[in-house]
Amino acid sequence: MSKKQSKRKVVETKQIKQKVKLPKELIIFGVAILVMIIGVTGASMAIFSHSVTSNQTDTVQAGTLTIAFTDRNLINLSNAYPMTDAQGTATTPYSFTITNNGTLKAKYNIYLEEDTSIAAAKKLDKTLIKFSYQKASGSYSTPALLSTLGSSLTVEQNQTLNSGASITYNFKFWLINTATNAAQGKTYKAKIVVDSVPTT
Questions:
Q1: Which of 66, 101, 105, 111 makes an SS bond possible with 154, Cβ 3.0 to 4.6 Å?
Q2: Do residues 160 and 173 both lie within one domain?
């Protein structure tokens, strides 16, 4: 091979390396921009969000309130079989404890946030689901249809928790015993949401 051919090959090799580097630089630049966008979005959520949603999380924060969820947090009735009230109230509860870490009393609301990703044809109707809950060491509420909560699905509203105090809730959900075969293969999913408002 002549010196001229050898030089030409070296030049061509350098050009190929430069061409290969270009996409890598673009990818790094693109990833950097994406990280910045995610960081800004996360910061905005931290500033403006005043509610907390359970989603398989052990401990979460809402204002001055700390909510500790025990074991299961996402309500999931999938392939559920019909139960009587006696059977439903004997199931394992969805439990969580709210603690006020602030120096003032705090008011809080508890409601359910449905999973909207489930297609209507695959979703269990709220008229087929019953629930009962216990506040602190009190008795469980009388079993009621989920549909009785209305569109807001609010369970507790404007409840007050003193500074330094804690309160535990236990929720139970089940498919009513009169459900027909039409309920087979359908699912109901929701998250427990707690929001707080400081009060004097």
A1: 111
A2: yes
Q: Which domain holds residue 18?
A: 1-48
Neighbouring CB atoms inside 10 A of 173's CB total: 21
Burial string for 55-92 (b: 16+ CB within 10 Å, else e) reads eeeeebebbbbbbebeeebbbebeebeebeeeebbeee
Chain segment 43-82, per-residue pLDDT in tens: 222 222 233 444 444 566 666 677 777 655 688 898 889 9
Helix (H) or strand (E) holding 21: helix 3-48
Q: Can you tell me which residue has the tokens 């003193």? A: 162
Indicate if 117 and 187 belong to the same structural domain.
yes
Do 152 and 87 lie in one domain? The reply is yes
- When pLDDT is cut at 50, 70 and 90, the band that residue 169 belongs to is very high
Centre a 10 Å sphere on the Cβ of residue 187 and count the other Cβ atoms it contains.
15
